[in-house]
Amino acid sequence: LFRLGVLTSGGDAPGMNAAIRAITLKGLSAGFEIVGINAGYNGIFNLDTQILSAQSVDNIIQRGGTLLKTARCSQLREEDGPRLAAEKLTQLKLDALIIIGGDGSFRGAVKLAEFWPKPIIGIPGTIDNDINGTDQTIGFWTAIDTALDSIDKIRDTADAFERIFVVEVMGRDCGFIAMESGIACGAEQIICHELIEDEETYLAQLYNAILHAVTWRQTQSYVIVIAEHSLSICSAELAKRIADFTGVDTKSAILGYIQRGGAPVAMDRVLATQLGISAVKAVCEGKTGLMIGMKNNEMVEIPFAQTGLKNTHNQDLIKRLKHFNFDLTD
Ligand code: F6P
After folding, report:
1. Edge-to-edge order in the sheet of strand 49-52
2. Mind listing the pLDDT tens digit for each residue in 161-193?
3. Which residues, other chains included, contact 238 with Cβ-Cβ below 8 Å and sequence gap of 6+?
4. How far from the centroid of its chain's Cα atoms is residue 125's Cα?
5. In sequence order, what E strands does the chain have?
6. Which residues form the Phosphofructokinase domain (predicted)?
7. Is the CB of 130 under 6 A from ligand 1?
């Protein structure tokens, strides 16, 4: 019996369950036994698995989190980690592995492949949307909607008090969540590190732009959406400095982990289902060492070596951000 392993790794993302479901149902129909590996790569080291049946994945397409749990596995990054993990995979009698995760998870897969010769296929699952070779990652659009829901609420109170708000969203080192949620909520400014060449100059321009807008009452409230890790100062400190410069009451809010939870939106369920089915198809065709992604609405196969982080100096992102920050020079 062909035993197909599946695991989720790294930050959980809404839609991972939909991918597990699709892989399980498609794999079962191909005649495979589906072995769920618990808690990411840790489940390989600990031989911690569960057999997935159609019943196990019933009613999970609409749930956030991941049925299989997830983790960031330090053991795999140790020198002997990949060799040991390969030994454990042999003990588990697996014939192929599908990994749902982000860039770190794919780097792990590449290391593992040096010692384990069977098919390994990846599916991009992270709210950050920071993986090369795919237009979207599972969880991204849900995270945007969750952030948007909160920012809209912050806008109400900002408007009522005529305050300035600094709202920090996730994205690790990547501005996509800030950009899309910022555009959608009509933010007056969107900040992410991709836009900043010199922080001091950037901040001076920012303070002046805000002062100009509040002085001329261009807006009753002023919302700044900022990606985490964009500046060397924290969001609370940024709010304080804006308040000092403009004389307008300024508050900060960090949205944090709520962005990772909740029921996946339709886009993420559909994407996860399509990617999951294509991943099983790739396994059936004996393919290995690649991520299934989606480009221009088509499923694509991208070798792990060509994935990697999409984050820095993404020209499209920078152009769009400048445009939406009403920078008319570009
Ligand atoms: O990769 C997804 C993500 O949520 C990032 O946006 C964030 O920076 C990071 O994970 C947080 O990681 P952890 O769960 O390890 O604190």
Report:
1. 49-52, 33-37, 3-8, 96-101, 120-124, 290-295, 298-303
2. 999 999 999 999 899 999 999 999 999 999 999
3. 166, 224, 226, 231, 252
4. 6
5. 3-8, 33-37, 49-52, 96-101, 120-124, 164-169, 189-191, 222-227, 250-254, 290-295, 298-303
6. 3-283
7. no
Which atom of ligand 1 is found nearest the CA of 72? 15
User: Tokens 């009509």 — which residue?
Assistant: 186
Residue with tokens 């397409």: 61
Can 244 be counted among the known catalytic residues?
no
What per-residue confidence (pLDDT) applies to 169? Answer: 98
State pTM to two decimals.
Answer: 0.96
Confidence of residue 217 (pLDDT cuts 50, 70, 90): confident
Ligand 1 binding pocket includes 229 (Cβ within 6 Å): no
8 Å CB contact between 45 and 75: yes
Closest ligand 1 atom to Cα of 102: 1
Assess whether the C-beta atom of 260 lies below 6 angstroms from ligand 1.
yes
Residue 185 gets the label, from left (phi > 0), alpha (psi -120 to 50) or beta, of alpha
Q: SS3 of 253, please?
A: strand
d(CA 168, CA 181) in angstroms, rounded, equals 11
Catalytic one among 128, 130, 145, 268? Answer: 128
Q: What angle do CA 10, 268, 32 make, to 5 degrees?
A: 70
> Could you please report the per-residue DSSP string of 126-191?
-TT--BTT-S--BTHHHHHHHHHHHHHHHHHHHHHHT-EEEEEE--TT--HHHHHHHHHHT-SEEE
Q: Is 127 in the pocket of ligand 1 (CB under 6 A)?
A: yes
Amino acid, res. 308? G
State yes or no: ipTM above 0.90.
yes
